[in-house]
Design brief:
Largest sheet: 6 strands, parallel
GO molecular function: branched-chain 2-oxo acid dehydrogenase activity
Protein name: 2-oxoisovalerate dehydrogenase subunit alpha
Keywords: Oxidoreductase, Thiamine pyrophosphate
Catalytic activity: N(6)-[(R)-lipoyl]-L-lysyl-[protein] + 3-methyl-2-oxobutanoate + H(+) = N(6)-[(R)-S(8)-2-methylpropanoyldihydrolipoyl]-L-lysyl-[protein] + CO2
Strand content: 5-15%
Order of helices and strands: HHEHHHEHHHEHEEEHHEHEHHHHH
Number of helices: 17
Helix content: 40-55%
Cofactor: thiamine diphosphate
Length: 378
Amino acid sequence: MANMTEQNAKVLDFDYQIQQQDEAFPTLQILNNAGQLVDEETFNQSDISDDDLVAIMQRMILSRQLDIRSTKLAKQGRFGFFAPTAGQEASQMASSYAFKDDDWLFPGYRDIPEIVVKGWPIWKAILWSRGHAKGNEMTTEDGKPVNAWMPQIIIGAQYVEAAGTALGLKKRKQDAVAYTYTGDGGSSQGDFYEGINFASAYKANAVFFIQNNGYAISTPRKLQTAAQHLAAKGWASGLPSMVVDGNDPLAMYLAAKKARAWSVAGNGPVLIETLTNRLEPHSTAGDDPLRYREQSDIDEWWKREPLIRMRQFMTDKGIWDETKEQAYVDEVNALIDDQIKIADNIEKQKISDFIKNTLEVPSQAMQEQIDKFESEGK
């Protein structure tokens, strides 16, 4: 009776329940803020080579340079919509390194870098930002398919898309998963819950990421939800869920690698919450982050950003230095220069083109509009 009484007391103790939610999700970390290994044994589980470390570092540098150049282009009026990514390089690029070409990526609008490293040309990303139809062609430079959907503007909708594809991969017995990213704000959307619940119910091949970057536009994480951890939302649908230091490239890679292996083996989806920070505005569309956060907070997060950690770790290992980094930065910027020229030289869309792209078979009224605008050279 005493044991039963103790069990019932815990069930009825709501403060205890909240405490348990908090303690149930320790944060996975391998590399600390100073770039030092805090868990060598777990690091060894990743089976990551020096070449892999260099590749991940290069991916993060590519993402940072894309962020810098895209922001400059936006200020010049030469770029369309852009959502900055600075600070989230480990969360995005180190995690994506764990996936394969056959895996399907379902990105949000802040996940352009993950599509680029799957083979999507940067010039198409630029055209996508400008609203050009060619920006929705998910193919490589030589026309081969890229296993990625176009960046989703509707918050959280990519979760439903990923769940459907994940079930298709399972039914076809493919050695592949669907993986997708959203932010902390996206985890409050209905599509988020529908996506993880559907995928979990059918044990579909999916890995879901919540990039907890601190703010859903101007709404801070603490006002977004009362959940102790966003990862706890995965438990409600029966998903294995974890919290990862999103500024730790090594932890992000290992978490993604383990999650992919679990899911592709037929065990169902995994949810990963990444603790990171959006160091710049929500977008280049006029957002001023200093209206809803302090500069001192931003400065502190800049000290913890992932490139600093990875750079120090790799320098200490003797596989990276300032010369190598600058050479790669120069290489990336030369590539971006070429890609901008390609995008600028693509024929601009006409009004008639927009109407043609609306439906595969235009209605009679639409065809009349097409004919009219074409006759006027528009």
